[in-house]
Design a protein that fits this description.
It is a single chain. The chain is built from 6 helices and 8 strands. It folds into 2 domains: 119 residues, Rossmann fold (3-Layer(aba) Sandwich), CATH 3.40.50.720; 32 residues, no CATH class. The protein is globular, with a radius of gyration of 17 Å. By secondary structure, the chain is α/β, with parallel strands linked by helices. The longest helix is centred in the N-terminal third of the chain and has 12 residues. The strands form 2 sheets. Strands 3-2-1-4-5-6 form a 6-stranded parallel β-sheet. Strands 7-8 form a two-stranded parallel ribbon. Helix 3 links the parallel strand 4 and strand 5.
């Protein structure tokens, strides 16, 4: 059947791309985001949207997803594993950790929990020119639409970083050179 993908944190810079790319691959995309962002995420390809702070993930059916992309972090790993089918994958885009060790403890727990059939994998960004070229093709033909929240001049880079620190940016912030 059609693969099911859950994107948690779907309205951020990474989530908006994850929703679109999963939908382009033919997946049935479910997405967790704030209520005010749900119409945007549905336009990007999600068939179902909800806010996991209002509708807890524990209310979703066990073994329902082939893959989960966790951009938001902060959700117990076992809860994520419960939602994927045997052989399914949970991909952690964020480590969501403490001030000293950062995401390392959560990533180590993910390794231990991955010994079963429901794998958890941290996402490590690796530059691959052929992937970037394909993404640019998708943008050029309009299949993949970057969601840009705000644009800053290079002199405003500090303000852009401060805005990111505040959280809840919908899409990407762009800093352009002069």
């Amino acid at each position: 059947g059609t693969p099911r993908v859950l994107v948690i944190g779907a309205s951020g810079g990474v989530g908006t791309f994850a929703v679109q790319l999963a939908a382009l691959r033919g997946a049935e995309v479910w997405a967790s985001c704030r209520d005010r962002n749900q119409p945007l995420i549905e336009r990007l390809g999600a068939v179902r949207t909800f806010d996991h702070r209002v509708t807890p993930l524990r209310e979703l059916p066990a073994g329902h997803f082939d893959a989960i992309i966790d951009v938001a972090g902060g959700i117990p790993l076992r809860q994520l594993q419960r939602l994927v089918v045997p052989g399914g994958r949970v991909v952690l885009v964020t480590g969501d950790g403490g001030p000293v060790l950062g995401p390392i403890p959560r990533m180590l727990r993910a390794v231990v929990l991955s010994l079963g059939s429901r794998r958890i994998r941290p996402l490590a960004a690796t530059p691959r020119p052929e992937v970037l070229a394909r993404l640019l093709e998708l943008v050029a033909d309009g299949s993949l639409v970057p969601v840009i929240a705000e644009t800053y001049d290079f002199a405003g880079a500090g303000a852009a970083l401060a805005r990111l620190q505040e959280g809840h940016v919908v899409g990407k912030l762009v800093v352009r050179g002069t």
